[in-house]
Amino acid sequence: MASFRILAVDDDPIFLLLLEHVLRRIGYTDLRCVSSGDEALKIIRSGEQVFDCFLLDIEMPGMDGIELCRRIRAVPSHRRTPIVMITAMNSQHFIEAAFASGATDYITKPIDDIELKARIGMVARLVDERRRGNALEDQLHAQSGLPLAQISFDDPIPVADVGGVVEYLGLENYVLTLGRLKLFGHAAIAFKIVNASEIFLAADAVSYLDTLANVASVIVGTLKTQQFMMAYAGRGEFVCMTARASVVDPDDLKLEIAVRLGEYRKLYEELGVPLPVVRVGEPQAPGFFTRVTPLALLDRARASVRDVVARRELMTALEH
């Protein structure tokens, strides 16, 4: 196994000893433990060591794990580093707050060896995948002299600094925490930037990320609710989980998004980037007597917005 550096933060020294013992037993030996958020931030901001994963206790005196998670995400070198929250509290409120602050996943106390191995194993595979991608880019750069791609059109790129927008893996893990009854109270709705591929080709990496952030902030402004969690899924698509009772008519959303984006037309023209055109899918909600997995609900939402785009393209072709 490649080096996998973990920073664990918990105010309980006995729990940290137990955690270290379990992690070593399942193969993770590069571990540093601290007892407070302030101490963790000092280490992180010093840059003396770059970590591959953070394990944060939610309930700590002073700075709790949720605030620490939020502050770690503000450190450029750790915007995408997996953060696993550890909690003895099963309240959905705390879980939602953790994911909203940028958490990747969570596990509950007392620690179960099998669950911890599965969760950390998933994170380790994610880190290895990112390392291979970075290594391939470095190799291509060395061989061709071309600039690094940095981002891929297909990838679920994290969109930073937009309230309520999380990493896609975090959204998936959040949805998985919802039981059947809680899932019934939610709906998934997807948004697609129809001309995303054109924007991707016309813009550099920074401009493309700025465009995604601009579209995300516009969508958030149209939702008219505080009860939502949204992520960028790749290929110009955003997926939002919201309270079922808060769903807004897709046509109304589309029109309002178009109006708000239209306010940025001059800016996009100056940048030489096409103005984003956004379509909205039909809200997808599970029926009370039908079984649908949480991740399938997200997939259905994305399929819905693709159908909307396809129907629009067909109508345009028939008109001409």
Automatic annotation (TrEMBL):
Residue ranges occupied by any Response regulatory domain in the UniProt entry: 5-124
Top-level taxonomic group: Bacteria
Signal peptide: none
Example of a GO biological process term: phosphorelay signal transduction system
InterPro entries for this protein: CheY-like_superfamily, Sig_transdc_resp-reg_receiver
Pfam families: Response_reg
List of residues that carry 4-aspartylphosphate: 57
SMART domains the UniProt entry points to: REC (SM00448)
Keyword field: Phosphoprotein, Two-component regulatory system
Protein name: Response regulator
Lineage: Bacteria, Pseudomonadati, Pseudomonadota, Alphaproteobacteria, Rhodobacterales
